[in-house]
Amino acid sequence: MASIDSRESIFIMVKNIRPITVVILLAACTMLMMTGYSMPYPVLAPWLIAHNLGLASLGWMSFAFSLGNLIAAPGAGYLVDRWGRRPMLIVGLIVIAIVNLVTPFVDALLPFVGLWFVLGLGNAGIMPAALAATADIAPPALRAKWIGYVSGGISIGLIIGPTIGGVLYDAFGFAAPFVVSGVMALVAVVLVIFIVPETRPAFDPQPPNSPSRSGFGDIWRNPPRPLGVLGVLLLVEFVWTFAWVATEPAMLRQLYEQYAYTATMFGVVVGVQGAATALGEFGFGGLSDRFGRFLLIAIGLVIHTAWYFGIEYVSQYSLLIVASILAGFGAGLVTPAIGAAYVDISSADQRGRIASLKEMILALAGMLGPLVAALATDYFPPAYFFRGATVMILLTSGLVVVIAWRYGRRLVGVVGAEPVVDA
Fold it and tell me: What does R_g of the chain's alpha carbons equal in angstroms?
């Protein structure tokens, strides 16, 4: 397998564009993608109400998106490694553009759900491609920091997207957020085509008698080692995503019915959490390069539980904002560390498939969480959901501490760090 560790090979690979410039462009593309993706959200509830459809239909749309993501992720990850990072970014962004530009012409729930399913299909390859491209060119000592820039672009997009969407809806009507979202996706396509280079390293031909490393199934035949580390990383992804989506209905009941918050107050509480996440990713994402991936993951998970504690026990608006900021900052520590940990234990020719495995776990959590919420929200008080989420996350953080104690700093991608080779 060709090495891409040297500074010279990196500069040749990206056609004389500085690696950090490529990462910033990738962050800009993911920000445009997530801004466009989240922009229509303020429109969905009024659309459903105007068509005499219950807000529970939002659950079907989320389910369809996650299902599409889950189905497409294995193939998308394989194509990221086989075709390259850049083609999959382009394909995914074009799908997002088409879905958004078609949506204003839809006037029934079933086609709407179908479009969200297609949106999930297109989205499946974007993050694996962006993360794999970042891992290709990031120096080991800056791996988590640079991954934090890309994930920070996602957080910023999620912050500003709904705000812009709400303004566009109020000023120009239902179609405006979708049209602008589609245009932004096309702008991102242009950036990728004309500015972002292909970063996938060239690999030596596979020996005739060696085990096949083609297809998504290669990660099952030749999984990253240690297996326990991979399992814990996937468990963390599942638990904290499941906890968030499973508590969303309870969160809305608590804030609107128990605390009598307005929509503006709710938007600020959620918005500051997203801003704190972006701050953690941009400003402190590189801490795991120095102190270890799992130490930062464990600390970030514990801090993140401030949200569930706060929403259950703190009704005062200003204090809940503080809890939201703490939770967002914790998430900002976890995301770059966990992304870099995947790269630490995987080979360069498996990065796309490992990233797509991560997307599959997130999609699975995104499907099961709303299902559990739909079945249980009417039978249990909101506090039960918040306590359950807190316990799940704290138990997972304890398991992360065990992994940190077991492997110490050996998973940290810093110069001179020893790779983990045991199973």
Answer: 21
Nearest alpha-carbon partner for 33 in 183, 241, 147, 179:
183
How high is the mean pLDDT of the chain? 79
> 10 Å Cβ neighbour count for 350?
21
Helix (H, G, I), strand (E, B) or coil at 58: helix
d(CA 6, CA 217): 30
For tokens 């500051």, the residue is 272
φ/ψ of residue 139, rounded to 5:
-60, 145
Q: DSSP labels for 241-306?
A: HHHHHHTHHHHHIIIIIIS---HHHHHHHHHHHHHHHHHHHHHHTTHHHHH-HHHHHHHHHHHHTH
Tell me the two tokens of residue 222: 């030749």
pLDDT tens for residues 176-195? 888 888 888 888 888 888 87
Query: Cα–Cα distance between 401 and 379 in angstroms, integer?
Result: 35
Give which of 272, 364, 329, 332 is closest to 145, Cα–Cα: 332
Task: Give DSSP secondary structure letters for 17-82.
Answer: --HHHHHHHHHHHHHHHHHHHHTTHHHHHHHHHHTT--TTHHHHHHHHHHHHHHHHHHHHHHHHHH
What's the CA gap between 423 and 408, in Å, rounded?
15
Residue 272 has pLDDT above 70, yes or no: yes
Q: 400: how many CB neighbours lie within 10 A of its CB?
A: 27
Q: Are 359 and 69 in contact (CB under 8 A)?
A: yes
Cβ pair 243, 300 in contact under 8 A: no
Average pLDDT over residues 302-321: 92
pLDDT in tens, 32-84: 777 767 777 667 767 776 777 665 666 677 778 888 888 888 888 888 888 88
Tell me what pLDDT residue 217 has: 53
